[in-house]
Amino acid sequence: MAQLTWLVTGCSSGLGEAFVMGILARGDKVIATTRGDVARISALKEAGARTYSLDVTASQDEISAIVLDILNDGPIDVLVNNAGYIEAGLAEEASYENYLSQFETNFFGVIKATRAVLPHFREKKAGIVVFLGSSGGIAGEPGAGPYCATKHALEGWNDCLRQETAHLNIKSIIFELGFFRTKMMHPDNIKFRTNPITEYDYVRELVGQFVQKMNGNQPGDPKKAVNIMIDVVKGEGVAEGKAMPTRLPLGPDVLSTMRKTCVNNLAICNEWEDVIRSTDLDK
């Protein structure tokens, strides 16, 4: 495949940083972005990336203006919506403000960044939008209500976008990621702001123990995940000769979650089919 130019959000660490380095290693060009001072990603600039400050929680006008500035130096072929964080909390205990904060970054931030790039993709009748999903977008997980809600929302929006832009040769894919060893679950990154309710003490304690145990012990290798995602976008390596899927789980843990969800949904359809079909008006 010809050399591509990728725009990646949230590159200060973790998967974003791995994406930039993996893309550069393939000989492609990268625009790496981060919230705040670009000095945070100076190492990526030294490696060969162009760097910009881009906060996905800014207004649509601000984000679109930054993208236009980026486009003055050349086209964009792939957008990777990587920026995000985990707003933890039990469903009832998390406040309305917690949910708003999570959606502002993980969902509305993704929408604004994508909408800023879509006019360019429409004009050139080509482009690929990458969404980073999660097992939490396939099935809910205790203690992650705000986070899982945003990832479920992203699933639906991706499906709509993919169908609406297909005739323009714009493709989109959502990668469903399991637990990969990044700093995502570090106490400095995971937000556990909650209003404790006594009846949930037991569940909250289990969630806290799980997060503490998982932090730094995630089984997934970020570099392996990134290499596969780049393969899929470029149609190379493990993806050579295969059509780009609408969504792709990465990691044995998320594969198990997706498979269990599919099997359970199929079982419901089979067991309740007569009831499900009985709701049409009588002929």
The total of beta strands comes to 9
Put simply, the count of helices is 10
Distance between the termini: 55 Å
Structural domains: how many = 1
Reported by name, the CATH topology is Rossmann fold
| β-sheet strand percentage | 5-15%
- Quick one: CATH class? Alpha Beta
Question: What is the residue-mean pLDDT, rounded to a whole number?
Answer: 93
Order of helices and strands: EHEHEHEEHHEHEEHHEHH
By CATH, the superfamily comes out as NAD(P)-binding Rossmann-like Domain
Overall radius of gyration: 20 Å
Q: Pairing-aware structural class of the strands and helices?
A: alpha/beta
Low-confidence stretches: none
Biggest sheet statistics: 7 strands, parallel
The outline comes out as: globular
CATH architecture: 3-Layer(aba) Sandwich
Proportion in helices: 40-55%
- Which strands sit side by side, in order, in the main sheet? 3-2-1-4-6-7-9
Keywords: NADP, Oxidoreductase
GO molecular function: oxidoreductase activity
Protein name: NAD(P)-binding protein
Family: Belongs to the short-chain dehydrogenases/reductases (SDR) family.
Q: Could you describe the 3D structure shown?
A:
The protein has one domain (5-253): Rossmann fold (3-Layer(aba) Sandwich), CATH 3.40.50. It has helices at residues 14-25, 42-47, 60-71, 96-106, 108-124, 145-165, 201-214, 222-234, 252-271, 273-277, and strands at residues 5-8, 29-34, 50-53, 78-81, 87-88, 127-134, 170-177, 191-192, 247-250. The longest helix has 21 residues, at 145-165. Helix 3 packs parallel to helix 5 (108-124). The strands form two sheets. The chain has a seven-stranded parallel β-sheet, with helices on both faces. A two-stranded parallel sheet has the order 5-8. It has 283 residues and is of the alpha/beta class.
